[in-house]
Amino acid sequence: MDYNTQRGQLKLREYGRNVQNLVEHLKTIKDKDERNKKAATLVELMKSINPDLNKDSSDYDQKVWDDLYIISNFELDFEGPFEKPKPEILDRKPDRLGYGANQIKFKHYGRGVEMLIDQAVAMEDPKEKEGAVVAIGRLMKSFYQTWNKDAIEDEQVLKNIKQLSKNELDINIETVKELGLFDSDKKPTNRNFRSNNKSGGRRNQGGKGRRNQGGKNGGQNRRRHNN
C-alpha cells in the first residue's frame, strides 16, 4: 500500500500530488526542447486545476510559472517566458500596507463626512451649499448619537462643520434650532412652509368667497323685500 505519510511533502497543496509527480517526471526528460513543451503544457494544466487564482491580475501568468519552479524545488531546467525566480522568494515577507497620511480629525464622524464637507465647500450656489450643510449636519448628529450615549447640541455640530470646512460653511444656528434642521426625524421645513401657505390661501379664498356670496345673497334679499 502507498500511503501519503510515505510520500514526499507537497510543495504547493493547491495543485495536488499528481502535478508534483508530473514535475518530477519533467526532470527525467533529457531533450530540452521537449522539456520546454511539456513544461508549457503543465502550466496550462495547473491553471485549470486552480481556477480560484485571480486571472485578471497582471502577474497571473508569472505566478503560475513561478509555482512550477517552486514545485520542482528550483531544480527543473527549462526556458519559460519569465525569468527564473530565486529560492529566496519563499522567505520573502509581504510588503507592508501603506495607510493614508490624512488623519481623521473627528473619528466618530469618519472620513466620509470630511469628503462631503469638501464637496460642499466647492459648491457655488449659496442655496445648494446651505442645503448641503443641513444634510451634513443631520448625518453628523446621527453618527455621533450612534457611538455616544450623550446627545450632541446643534451648536457643537455646527462648530465641527466650521472646523472641518475651515470656516467656509456656516448657517444660522437659531434657524437650525427653531426648525430642527439637524434632526433626522424632522421633515424638510420648506415643504412645511409651502403646505401651510397653500392651506392658508385656500382658507382665505374660502372665507372671501363665502363673504362675497353672503353679500350677494343679502343684496338680492333686500331687493325682494323692497319690491
Catalogue the unreliable spans.
189-216, 218-227
Summing up helix and strand content along with how strands pair, one would put the structural category as mainly alpha
Oligomer: single chain
What overall geometry do the principal axes of the alpha carbons give?
Answer: rod-shaped
**Major beta-sheet overview:** none
Distance between the termini: 131 Å
Strand content: under 5%
Helix content: 55-70%
Count of helical segments? 8
What's the helix-strand series?
HHHHHHHH
Radius of gyration based on Cα positions: 39 Å
| Strand element count | 0
Number of domains: 2
Mean pLDDT figure = 78
Any overview of this molecule?
The protein is an all-alpha fold and 227 residues long. The chain has two domains: 4-91; 111-186, no CATH class. Helices cover 58% and strands 0% of the residues. The protein is built from eight helices and no strands. The protein has helices at 16-28, 32-49, 60-71, 111-121, 126-147, 154-164, 173-179, 189-226. The longest helix has 38 residues, at 189-226. It is rod-shaped and about 90 Å long. The relative contact order is 0.06. Mean pLDDT is 78; it is low at 189-216 and 218-227.
